[in-house]
From TrEMBL:
SUPFAM superfamilies: Metalloproteases ('zincins'), catalytic domain. This is M6 family metalloprotease domain-containing protein. The keyword Signal applies. One of its GO terms (molecular function) is metallopeptidase activity. Keywords: Hydrolase, Metalloprotease, Protease, Signal. Residues 1-28 form the signal peptide. One of its GO terms (biological process) is proteolysis.
C-alpha cells in the first residue's frame, strides 16, 4: 500500500481507491494494495545527479526511482525514532493480549532495515504501554485509505489521545495500531505531509506516519518495513491496475513489491537511492562496448554491488548479485544468482503516469526484472512470485539481453559473481 502526499502547491487526486480491498484472512489471497491517496509536485530533489547513471527526478509526481527530495520524505539514515500508538474507539475495544501480540509482531521489523542498510539506518521503535481512547466510532474515519485529510484526522485524533503521556518531539514517525474489532481499518497506508501540512504536538510537526489495518495479520512485521519504505520515498513496484497481474514486474525480488516474498531485501538501486550504497560501489556504464565486473553479494558489506548502464534519458539497466543472506533466505522460491532489471523514472509508484492515470496492463513499471527463463513458473511458489523465481543467471554462460545490454555470467568465485556486460 502506498501513501498520500499533499504538497502546499497543487493537489491532484490520483486514482484513489482503484485497488483498495477489504482485509482478508491469512488463508486467503493477500489483500490488494492501493495507490496513493493524493499526490502533487514533489519539488526538486535536494541531491544532485552525482553519478551520470542516476536518473533525473520527474518534474511532477510522488514516489519514483530518481533522487529523493528529503525536504518532503524522511531521510533513511542514522537513528530514526518511531512511536507505536495503540488506539481504541467507542465501538471497538481490544481483546486481552492484543497489544502484546502486535508489539511482538512488529518487534522484528527494525532488524530488516539494519541489515538492508548495512547498519546505516537504525530504526528505533518505542511501543506505547496502554490503549489510548479516541472518543469517536472507528467508522468516523471511513475513507482513511483514499483521502489525505481523513487519514490526517485519524492521525491527529490518535496523537491527541496520547499527547498527555507521550512527548512527540522525540519521534520522526508515528505508527497507529487499532484493535482488530475496528473493521474500518482494513489496510495499512503510509502518510506523508509536506512541510506545514502535518500534525503538530509538543512543538513538533509530525509529517510521517503509518496507520495499520487488519492486513497486518496477513503480512506480519514486514508490512511495517514496506510502509516505512514509502516514508523514505521508495515507490510501490506492483501494478495499480487491478485487472493486471499485480506482481508481474518484480515478483518477490524487492520488499517494495511483494511483501510476503522469500527474497524481501531491497534492490541495489533502492539501496543506492537511499544512500546506503556509495557511488564507488556502483560500476556506472554510459558508453558502448564490453567490460567485466565482479559483484559481491548484495546482502554483505563492501565491494561493488551493481553494474548500472544508463540506457536513455530516464532509463537504466542494473545488474546485481543476489545470494542467500539474512534477508534473502534459502528456499525453493529464491534462486541465488545474478539479477538483471530495468529502472525508469517515466512512471511513478505502481506504474501510474504523470497526471495519475491508471497504468495500462503490462506497464511500464518503475522496475521490471529481466527474466532469463520466461514461462518457467515454479508452481510450488506463490502465485505472485512463481513467474520470476528463475529469472537469475545461475551458471557460467547464462545470458540475458535487454534494451541493447547483454549480461553474461562468466565466473563464480565463492559467493562473488563475475559478469561481462556488453552495451551496443
Amino acid at each position: 500500500m502506498s501513501l498520500g502526499v499533499r504538497a502546499r502547491t497543487a493537489l491532484a487526486v490520483l486514482v484513489a481507491g482503484v485497488l483498495l480491498a477489504p482485509a482478508v484472512p491469512a488463508t486467503a489471497a493477500p489483500p490488494a494494495e492501493g495507490p496513493p491517496t493524493a499526490g502533487a509536485a514533489a519539488g526538486p530533489a535536494r541531491s544532485t545527479l552525482v553519478s551520470p547513471c542516476q536518473l533525473p527526478t520527474p518534474v511532477t509526481g510522488w514516489q519514483h526511482e530518481g533522487p529523493t527530495n528529503y525536504a518532503t520524505w524522511l531521510p533513511p539514515s542514522g537513528t530514526v525514532r518511531g512511536i507505536v500508538l495503540f488506539v481504541d474507539f467507542t465501538n471497538a475495544a481490544p481483546v486481552s493480549g492484543e497489544r502484546a501480540g502486535r508489539t511482538s509482531t512488529f518487534g522484528a521489523a527494525p532488524n530488516v532495515f539494519t541489515q538492508a542498510s548495512y547498519g546505516a539506518l537504525n530504526l528505533q521503535l518505542t511501543f506505547d504501554t496502554t490503549w489510548r481512547h479516541i472518543p469517536q466510532t472507528h467508522g468516523s474515519f471511513a475513507g482513511y485509505q483514499s483521502n489525505f485529510f481523513t487519514q490526517r484526522s485519524y492521525l491527529a485524533a490518535a496523537v491527541a489521545a496520547a499527547d498527555s503521556a507521550i512527548d512527540f518531539s522525540l519521534y520522526q514517525i508515528v505508527y497507529v495500531v487499532p484493535p482488530k474489532s475496528a473493521t474500518t481499518f482494513d489496510i495499512s497506508p503510509a502518510w506523508v505531509a509536506a512541510p506545514g501540512d502535518g500534525v503538530t504536538a509538543d512543538g513538533a510537526e509530525l509529517r510521517h506516519a503509518v496507520t495499520f489495518g487488519q492486513d497486518v495479520d496477513y503480512w506480519g512485521y514486514k508490512i511495517l518495513n514496506h510502509e516505512t519504505g514509502h516514508l523514505f520515498g521508495l515507490p510501490d513496484l506492483y501494478s495499480y491496475n487491478s485487472a493486471d497481474s499485480i506482481h508481474r514486474a518484480v515478483g518477490g525480488w524487492d520488499l517494495m513489491g511483494l511483501i510476503s516474498a522469500r527474497a524481501p531485501d531491497l534492490f541495489a538501486w533502492h539501496k543506492w537511492k537511499a544512500g546506503w550504497l556509495t557511488d564507488s560501489q556502483i560500476d556506472c556504464r554510459t558508453t558502448t562496448g564490453s567490460a567485466s565486473a565482479v559483484l559481491t553479494p548484495l546482502g554483505t558489506t563492501g565491494g561493488t554491488k551493481a553494474v548500472v548502464v544508463h540506457t536513455g534519458g530516464n532509463t537504466a539497466v542494473v545488474v546485481e548479485n543476489r545470494q542467500i543472506s539474512g534477508l534473502d533466505v534459502s528456499s525453493g522460491c529464491f534462486q541465488p544468482g545474478v539479477l538483471v532489471y530495468r529502472v525508469t523514472t517515466s512512471v511513478f509508484s505502481g506504474g501510474a503516469s504523470p497526471g495519475g492515470s491508471v497504468p495500462p496492463i503490462g506497464g511500464p513499471f518503475p522496475v521490471e526484472v529481466v527474466d532469463r527463463t520466461p514461462g518457467s513458473d515454479v508452481t510450488s511458489c506463490g502465485t505472485d512470485e512463481k513467474a520470476l523465481v528463475n529469472a537469475t543467471l545461475t551458471a557460467i554462460g547464462h545470458t540475458v539481453t535487454y534494451g541493447g545490454v547483454t549480461v553474461q555470467l562468466t565466473a563464480t568465485p565463492g559467493n562473488n559473481r563475475e559478469v561481462s556486460v556488453t552495451v551496443v
